[in-house]
Prior knowledge:
The complex is a heterodimer of chains A (87) and B (133).
Chain A: H1 10-42, H2 61-86
Helix pairs in contact in A: 1-2
Chain B: H1 2-32, H2 37-59, H3 65-86, H4 94-128
Amino acid sequence: MGQPLGRGSQFGSCFFLITGFHGTHVSIGVIFLIAIARKVFRGDFDVERRGFFTSRKGYYEVVEITGLYWHFVDLVWVFIFAFFYLW
Amino acid sequence: MTNAAVHVEGPQQSLQAHVHDTIASGTTHAKGQQHPIKLYLVVWGWLFVLSTCSYLVDFFGLHGNLRWSLICLFMVLKAGLIVAVFMHMAWERLALAYAILLPPVLVLVFVSIMVFESDYTHFLRILFFAAST
């Protein structure tokens, strides 16, 4: 209970759990955005080339879907920032 | 048996074709209504301004109700911009916007009712349960 962020601190547990999970999602998003950008740059979606892990053809929709994921993570950060850093 | 199977198969195929047509027209439609990149940059700039404002609330050390209301105001404005423009909610049909936005709003209403009632509940617990100890 001694340190504000240390062992046994409920705030520290919540803080590092939430920001840690958020950082994980940001990292996953960065990896996916780089992969999608590479596919767009290479023109995979123009020739409907299939993805590495799937037998389905690639379309430009995945750009929109990855963007939605990224902006959802962004949206979550707005609330984390307000409630943990400003509150 | 075979006739029935064929009979069932017919509408399914037409349905699939219909879905495919809808998806195809949807993609062509999406290609037609690309938003200008300027819109995204303007929203990005506004998000910077709002973030600066919410940081300034902390910087000037505002306290009490003013602090919480300003922080919540900037938070809601930023969230609204992100959902409306970056996540394209502004261009979705109204029914989908309501289906997504209304449940969280109702949850918040429920939470505020519980917060409003919490003092009374706490008072009752002190009155009836703390006296016996």
